[in-house]
Every structure is written in C-alpha cells, then in structure tokens.
Design a protein that fits this description.
The structure is a single chain. By secondary structure, this protein is α+β, with helices and mostly antiparallel strands. It folds into two domains: 40-162, CAP (Pathogenesis-related Protein p14a, 3-Layer(aba) Sandwich), CATH 3.40.33.10; 168-447, no CATH class. The protein is built from twelve helices and 19 strands. The strands form six sheets. The chain has a six-stranded antiparallel β-sheet. Strands 1-3-4-2 form a four-stranded mixed β-sheet, sandwiched between helices. A three-stranded antiparallel β-sheet has the order 7-8-9. It is elongated and about 125 Å long.
Length: 448
C-alpha cells in the first residue's frame, strides 16, 4: 500500500513539473491546439484554405502600398513538393541558393521555415516574415510536411522576384532592367541586363559567348527584333521590262542613295545608342543613318526577289557600321547606302572592296545570322554555312536538338507574333518612282 502511494506521488510530481515547464517555456498554446486537433475540437482547416489565407495575408500590405500582388508559381511549388520532404533546413541560406540554382528565372528569393501544431498556428508564425517583404517580389510558393511523428507540421515559404521573359514586347512595356533569357545555341539560362538608353542591344550568351539575338527600338520606344524592321515594304516604282537583274540592282541602289540623306541620330550620353527606322519611315523622312538606309535598301531588294541581307559590323578604324550584301549569279556584292555613289562601271564585288568591312551580325526578314565561332578571323564569305549560323529569335531550340548546339532551328516566323512581317503600306503622299533606264547600259558584260 505504501509502495503504491509512493509511485502515485512520484507520478503526480512529474506531471506537475512538466506542467510548470510547459508554462514557463510558453508552449501552452502548442499543446492546447494539439489536444483540440486530435480530440476533434478544432474545425477542419485544409491546406488549400491555408494557401489562400497565406496569399491574402501576404498581399494585404501590398495592396495598401499599391504594389503588384504576389502570385502563386505552380512550377516552383511542384519543385518544392518534390524536394521539400528530404530537404534539410539547418542552413536557410543554402536553401535559398538551391532554389535559385533550380529556378534560374528567380532574380531574388527570400525563404522562411516555421513549425506549428496546426496550419492556423503556422499562418500566424509567418507574421514577421510578411513585414519584411521586398517590393520587387512577384511570386510565391509554400509547401507543408509532417514533423515529430505527425504531432506537428513544418512549412517552407519561398517568395521571389520572378523575371519576365526577355523579348521586345516585355522590353517595351516593362520598366525593369533585368530579364530572363535562354541562349538559342546552347540553351544556357541567364539574366539579361537591359539599359533602355541603349536603343539597340545584342544578346550574347555568357557561356558559349555567341550572339543569339539583336533588338532595337524605333523613335517611339517600341522594340523589335532586328529582322522585324524589314517589314516587306517597297516604294511604288516602275521598272523597265527588258532590264537585267544587275541593271535592276543598280537602279534600286542608286534610288536609295539619291533619295536618303545621311543624318546621324542624336545620342544622349555615352551609354545611349540610336533608334532604328523601318523602310516606310525612312522614305517618308527622306533621311536616316547607316542602318536606316541599309534596312531600306535591303527591304526593297528582298521585295524584288534579290537574295540580300543587312550587315552590322565594323568598318576599318571608324567603328560600328551597317551595309548590305547581295548574292546574284554566284557573285557577292557589297552595297554602301551612305558612302560614295554607285558606279555601274565598277561593280562593288565583296571580294574586292570588302577587306575593311568586318561583319558581326546579318539579318534578312526571317532570321539573323551570327558568326559560328566567336572571334574567328573573317574569311570574306557572307553566305557560307561554315562561318554563319542562322537563328530565328522567336523560335526555341527543341530538346531533341540539344546534342547539336551549333545548329539552331530555322522555321518561318509566325505573323501572329511578328506583326510587322506583312506590312506593305504605301504613303499617301508618295509619288510613283520611274527609274532611269540608262543606268544599266554602262555595266560591263562580265558583271551582268
């Protein structure tokens, strides 16, 4: 009897000591909620309701601050659901680095892990984290896993700045200076820094060091891929029916040269570059700089069925320049739209006049052409597939072609996403151009 009394006294003492410990360690609410949960005293609170309430609470302060609302990222959430059950949370910085490595589209991430006996308790634990949000954050994802043998739960919340895809439309509409992109050669994902004062931008992959896109803006600040400035426009003109193709080539070249006055665009500051014009704008204005007149000349030649490309590169020691190359009867012509005057008696064969011209990028209406090997010595061949890789900026390299990164997909652009491709507008005040039919008579027979 005495032994039983002693045992019960010891148990009572242990229980009292445990109760005091719980009170002093501020775990009363934990046990209260745990008891209510397992005895059915608490209302059912699903994970879906928990996520909705979490997003609402996180966005509450953003609404009053007039910031964009955070959105759920399904891709990030799926990745977290796959990896969170085995993820160690002892180093939260390592978790952040792992998230950014797996999700390169995220420029910034903030990670918070909390535990609690119920989802409602976890929701309250995120209070301090809500007050530390950065205004740049755009998306979130949250996952929950059981803890302590199912007696509690642990939640991982990731809030991050998810970058917009780099394309002309986003560059025009957004005020951001950082975008996400993937190289069309090697598929390497990376962040693009876009300085909007640089109205023309070439995208170079930081891994393979190859250019895979060129964008430029017009005077209204609307960006396009370089090839989309070739809109398919040609001025109203009448050509002699019996003229040769070389005759027609020189006729168009002379007309552009005589009717487009060279004017250099004003540049603001050292980081600024000039804007570009379409062929229609150049004809209306009657002036432009080297790339404007080159685009005009190339667009007209393409409309007349010539194999032509605009070339961006360097001319001697004078720096950046633009010109046009034409392939006709297996001969390559290099046409200057700003310098000199077309001389039919001295055809500008690229092999003869092009020694000081060093091309970097070319484009026609459907694609751009970039050097296959960065920094390689220029061999003087504008059409060799050995030296040039064809890239369509709006197409993506499919996974099946990952084994051949030096070859890019070459499909025709969809006019729905390239609305400038079919433009054939003629200015209302444009007069019909009648070309000088005598210009081709001076062309040597060997060049015809």
């Amino acid at each position: 009897m005495l032994s039983r009394l002693l045992v019960w006294s010891i148990l009572a003492g242990v229980t009292l000591a445990g109760a005091l410990l719980v009170v002093r360690s501020d775990h009363v609410s934990f046990w209260r909620q745990w008891i209510r949960q397992w005895t059915g005293g608490a209302e059912t609170y699903s994970e879906i309701r928990f996520q909705v309430d979490l997003v609402d609470r996180l966005n509450y302060g953003r609404i009053s601050a007039r910031l964009p609302l955070l959105k759920l990222d399904e891709g990030l959430e799926n990745w977290l659901e796959e990896h969170f059950p085995q993820m160690a949370l002892d180093d939260i910085n390592a978790v952040s680095a792992r998230v950014q490595e797996a999700m390169p589209r995220y420029y910034r991430v903030a990670v918070c892990a909390v535990s609690g006996p119920s989802l409602r308790a976890i929701l309250d634990e995120f209070q301090d984290f809500r007050e530390q949000q950065l205004p740049e954050m755009t998306h979130l994802a949250c996952v929950v896993r059981p803890q302590t043998g199912g007696f509690s739960r642990q939640a991982l919340l990731v809030v991050g700045q998810r970058l917009q895809e780099f394309n002309p439309e986003n560059l025009t509409a957004e005020m951001e200076d950082a975008y996400f992109s993937s190289c069309l050669h090697c598929r390497h994902p990376h962040i693009v820094r876009a300085v909007k004062k640089r109205h023309s931008l070439g995208l170079e992959c930081p891994q393979c060091r190859r250019t895979y896109a060129v964008v430029a803006s017009d005077e209204n600040g609307v960006f396009r891929y370089a090839n989309e400035f070739l809109t398919g426009y040609a001025p109203p003109a009448v050509f002699s029916k019996d003229q040769s193709r070389v005759h027609e080539l020189f006729t168009i070249w002379t007309a552009v040269h005589d009717n487009c006055r060279y004017v250099k665009d004003p540049v603001e500051g050292k980081v600024s570059t000039d804007t570009w014009q379409t062929s229609l704008e150049t004809q209306r204005l009657g002036q432009g700089d080297c790339e404007d007149s080159a685009i005009y000349l190339c667009d007209w030649l393409l409309t007349r069925g010539f194999q032509a490309r605009v070339v961006l590169g360097r001319f001697g020691d004078l720096g950046g320049h633009a010109w046009v190359v034409v392939k006709l009867d297996d001969k390559e012509y290099l046409l200057e739209s700003t310098e000199g005057r077309p001389d039919p008696a001295n055809p500008p064969m690229a092999s003869r006049v092009g020694s000081r011209y060093v091309p970097e990028v070319m484009f026609d209406r459907h694609a751009i052409f970039v050097r296959s090997t960065p920094g390689q010595a220029w061999k003087g061949d504008y059409w060799s597939a050995k030296y040039w890789t064809r890239i369509e900026p709006r197409s993506l390299l499919p996974d099946t072609e990952m084994s051949a990164p030096s070859v890019a997909r070459t499909t025709r652009p969809d006019p729905a996403v390239a609305p400038f491709m079919e433009l054939e507008e003629i200015p209302r005040d444009a007069t019909e151009w009648r070309m000088n039919s005598d210009i081709g008579r001076e062309i040597p027979a060997a060049s015809r």
